[in-house]
Amino acid sequence: MTGGTQRMAIKITPLSDHTGAEVRGVDLAGAVDDATRAALNAAFSEHSVLAIRNQTLTAPQLLEAIQLFGPVFRQHNTRFALPECPLIHYLSNQDQYDNGKRYIPGAGYHTDHSNAEEPPKATLLLAIELPDSGGDTQYVNMQRAYEDLPEDTKTRIADLQAVHVYQSKHSERKLTGLSPEAKALVPDSVRHPLVRTHPENGRKSLYLNPIRIESIDGMAEADTLQLLDELLAHATQEKYQYRHKWQARDLVIWDNRCLLHKANGDYDHSQTRYLYRAMLQGSRPV
Ligand code: SIN
Q1: What is the homologous superfamily of the domain 11-280 according to CATH?
Q2: Residue ID of nearest Cα to ligand 1 atom 4
């Protein structure tokens, strides 16, 4: 141990044969040594989801700790920001739409904030309060899904550019509205390739987002929707899924560049599901 930095006996165990690993032996409330930081970043690039167990962190401690994976991304909808630590948001099943209907944040497969020029590379959730059962987060591995596509489909979609907006008119899930201040920070639309290459591991993946994709350049609307439905049906097959069953004090980080994820509202809603949420800055998809 040097200068208050902990040398940790980190243990990383895969959670499926393609996505997810459990991390034990790390306490992110303290400083982390360089070897542990490197091991965590390498594991994140390899497994795409890390479930770091037993993390007891205040919001400011979480904000400090997550920067071992990179700089923080400012989330668009400031309505969910914690007043005492605004770069950390919360996610709660006790929230409602303006019409009083319960809001389950994150229902339906998506990747986060793809309407940004440089979308967040990662999202992190820290479990503060969980229902007794249910409320898993489901992921699909978009690298595996891309690799298994027929060659003629790969050729057909290789150069396609999709237009992403805050709320696609085609989205089944409706998002809560942005405040005027947040609206001023969010671009009207951005273009991203439908197939992107991971900047760290070099693998290609589908980059879809049913909540945000409004159109594909040069394609009629009916053809766009048919193509997106086809690709989504392919990518969300069970063989590409990893389903995270939450444990108390799990800190989960996932890679938005090569996964879709969704929340499940399949639990007793008289019980609270409350997590802290943060994101990390990514680069322009290429
Ligand atoms: C999200 O989409 O960020 C929420 C995922 C979850 O609540 O499980």
Answers
A1: Clavaminate synthase-like (3.60.130.10)
A2: 106
